Amino acid sequence: MPFIGLTGGMGAGKSTALAALERLGAAVLSSDAVVHELYEGEQLRAEVIGRWGPAVAPDGVVDRSAVAERVFASEEERRWLEGLLWPLVGARVAAWLGEVRGGSGRKQPRARAAVVETPLLFEAGLEGLYDATIAIVSQEDVRRERAARRGHALVNERAARQLPQAEKARRATFVVRNDGTEEDLEQGLSTVLDKLSR
Question: Span 154-167, mean pLDDT?
Answer without folding.
Answer: 67
